[in-house]
Fold:
Amino acid sequence: MGFKKKQMLGFGLILLFLAILLSFMMVTLNNLKSSMTEIVENRYEKVSASMEIRQLFSRSDREILFAANDANKEERAESLEIINENHSLIESKIAGLSGTLNKVKAKQLLKEFETQYASYSITEAEIIQSIKSGNSSGNLSSLMDDQREKRTKVISTMDDFKDYQEGVMKDTLSNSKQTYEDMIGFVIFAVILSILVISVTVVWMIRSTSKDLQSITKVIKNIDFKNLVIPRVPVRTTDEIGEIARSFNDMAESLEDYNRKEKDFTEKISEQNWIQTRVADIATMYQRIVDVEVLADRFITRLAPMMGASIGAFYVKRGEGVDMRFVKLASFAGDGEDSGRREFRLGEGLIGQCALEKKSKVIDDIPEDFQLVTTGLGEVNPKSIVIAPVVFEEEVVAMVELASLETFTKLQKSFLNHVLDTLGITINNVEGRMEIERLLKESQAQTEELQAQSEELQSQSEEMQAQSEELQTQAEELRMINEQLEERNRETEEKSKELQVAKQNLEKQAEELKLSSKYKSEFMANMSHELRTPLNSILILSEMLSDPNDSKLNEEQQEFARVINSSGQDLLTLINDILDLSKVEVGKLEVVFDEMNLSELPELLHRNFDHVAKKKNIDFIIEKSKNVPDIFFTDEQRFQQILKNLLSNAFKFTEKGSVSVQIQKADEENVAQWIQTKGASNWVEIKVTDTGIGISKEKQKLIFEAFQQGDGATMRKYGGTGLGLSICREFAKLLGGWVIVDSEEGQGSTFTFFIPSMPEGFKNVGEAIAASPEVAAANHDDSAATFGGQGESDVVIMDEENRNKVKPFCNKKVLVVDDDHRNIFALKNALKHEGMEILTAENGYECLELLEKGNNIDVILMDIMMPGMDGYETMTRIREQSKFEELPIIALTAKAMKGDREKCLKAGASDYVSKPLKLDQLLSVLRVWLTN
Structure:
């Protein structure tokens, strides 16, 4: 019997028994209810009705006596009226009782009561008539005696009726109690019987299934989780337990198969990592090698241990055509001159045949008398030999032969193939550099020889002038010398051609470097996008949460949000610094020389750093000499960023005392000892002095390197990335200036910034920048790069003022097009808070579909980098439809390369905002386009 059937049978018996018990209880309770209803509704009501009839009868009797004896005329009339009303009520009560009686005796008693009451009523009517007619008291007295006799009979009959009904009610109540006691006894018996039946059923079910379950449990406990060896459960039944056993066996087989596949995959990944690590190690070794022999020696020395080889040789091709041969340049663990051939030609021996076929060969079946590997104790025959060609542009340029005491593994062979793939390029590059160096040396030697010959000719000319009589005799000699010179000139021309070829090779290498720089630029751009995209949602959401006017968070939670926002801003600053250094490194940072007003500089510095000085309780002093020109020509953005970094460092490392800035005209002779001063109209030096921790002499050069600070303790205490001073010096160089430091540890520091005024800029640098593509990095706004982001602050103030007056975003519908759900979530919450209705699309196709549905969209926020259809194509298609020509489209992107703004506007964007977004800046742009 199956487990399911056992359960159904067991629980079916239990339910059947419970149903029988419940049915009996329901019948018993129904009988008990009927008895109680009989008592309450029937008997009690009949007794109550008989009592009411008696009370009415007694009241009528009293009123008759009062009317016959003591009442005056008015009271007598009132008593007679009461008597008539009671008579009517008594008749109605009797009629009501007659319809409810179901006992014969009760009906007889009621009938007798009716007869007696009718006789009494006749006597009562005669008494009333006698009272009304004023008959003699003797006649009235006889009627009253008759009335009392009848009254006694009526009351006696009514008492008999009431006693009968009370007796019936007592009998019914006794029967109900007996029924209740019987029901309680049966319930106790039924509960005990139910417990026994359920217990027997459960024990039967448990015993019938526990044996199979114990066998499964025993198998599960014996599983070897370390090696994932799973024993199989024996299948003894065809019920659900048997199905579980079969399913467990299938699962065990599947898990073991998955474990085998996972081990295979892990092994492949490990092998791949092993290969890549060692390939990278060898590739790093190639750097700065300019001689093939050095390359061969280092390569075979590094490769042999990695391959597990005990001996090895490296051969390089020499000569061309019939003179071509392969010469051994290096060996590993060689035995003097006898270790292998010194050279061979194509087709000579196995190694020559491998070179001819351009194929590798592995020899595992080696004769026992083949002894090549030597140790201090003797010679050992190898177990495996591998011969591999090094190919460059379908031509073998070198050969490698390795021997091992163990058989080469498949992993080692794969590693050798990977290494040799790049070795050919390296050999060609090194030989190219050697050939260029050789040609340059020959050219220099020939130039020196020509100069010596020229001097000799000049000397000979002087001799000819002094000894004119020898002209004829020396003419032949001169002719011969001229022929030699012509010959040498021809040789010089040939060398020049060779130099031209070398130049072309150098230009080719320069082009490769340029391509590498482009790849690096693209990498920096993509990295900028990947970092700024999640950072965008972090900054927006944390800014919303930290707003005390809008947030529902408590003070501590708002402080958490402000810390998150501050950390995000620090991360953004670090990204910008790294990208700036990358621009400078590849020489593609754009510098725009324009007019700026130096007279406004002190006020600008006070406005942006007074609050820092006040917070740290230190003095901030700015002095500007009168001889400093007001009009100055430089790149204002880079100029201000240099000062910002210098002052930020000064305040960071100063705990007490002061920070001062001195602006004065620089002495050109003093500047000349640091940097060339040609081309500048005048020079200005700006000294930033602090009373902070100072810098030791040995660390003063180190601090201008990227990611460097004074020491580890300084970094741990004050934080920072070590990029600020590096950016300062690099920007200063781009502006034609320089930054120096004068400091003593514990006495403070003075950083001096020399900068020239360049009305014409650097023409050659400008041309170079114009001819090269912009570095692929995020192009931060000018306001963000200058002090405090003043333009941005103005926008914030304006936004807050306008927000207090009107709400331009209320009920405006915005379509957010972005493939990043984090950005969609952040923008939805931010814009919904402003009262806007938000629709979202994850790519250009969804955007076009929503527009076609006619959603009455007021503005579109368009991301540029999206899968499928990007932002450029989407905006172009939208503008192709005349009904959307005036629809505002604001382009948003985290990859802002130079020219992207113009490209977005050309594609149809109304405006352009770079990520990470500043919420106030975005709202300001939206306000402009929604209110216009």
Notes: The first helix runs from residue 3 to 69. The longest strand covers residues 395-404. The radius of gyration is 57 Å.
